[in-house]
Amino acid sequence: MRVPRDLSYHELQQIVESIQSFLYIDRDDDEQEIWNPDKEWSLGDACDHVAYVLSRYDLVPDDRQPLRAERQQYTLGAIDGPMFRKQRELLLRLISVSKEGKAHAANHAEQELLSGLVNLTDAIADQAHDEHGIDCLLDVRL
């Protein structure tokens, strides 16, 4: 089973879009698709859809297991070296641009790299909290 932090930004978008579409895309009298905030749906059908979407992205446990087992520990061996190098290079470029007082709009690939760094930082913070009781978790969402 994958955990949400393992998902790419694109995968997270697809999951949210699927649930949003299920809940709010409706058909008008001419059978054209429309957004409808008042679309009726049953709680059972909504739960079934969410379960289906989670299974498509391998976010459903394979069997009963302790909750702690799914936490990914921060280890150097788990870091993707080439990806980490790209992330570091991006950070150095951003530092350089900011020192020059220029703005930089990150493209999609750069956003993915930055998202990966946030996930890595979160994993380190989670591990520090779990193992040492250090309250270093930041509740800041990008």
**Quaternary structure annotation:** single chain
What percentage of residues falls in helices of 4 or more residues?
40-55%
Strand order of the largest sheet: 1-2
Q: Looking at the structure, what is the overall shape? A: flat
**What's the Cα radius of gyration?**
20 Å
What low-confidence regions span 5 or more consecutive residues with pLDDT below 50? none
> How many strand elements?
2
Helix and strand sequence: HEEHHH
Sketch the major β-sheet.
2 strands, antiparallel
Contiguous helical run count: 4
Number of domains: 2
Overall mean confidence score, pLDDT:
82
State which percent range the strand residues make up: under 5%
Kindly name the structural category. mainly alpha
Distance between termini? 25 Å
Description:
- The chain is mostly helical.
- It has two domains: 4-68, no CATH class; 74-132.
- 52% of the residues lie in helices and 4% in strands.
- The chain has helices at residues 9-24, 43-56, 81-99, 108-132, and strands spanning 25-27, 33-35.
- A two-stranded antiparallel ribbon has the order 1-2.
- The longest helix is centred in the C-terminal third of the chain and has 25 residues, at 108-132.
- The two termini are 25 Å apart.
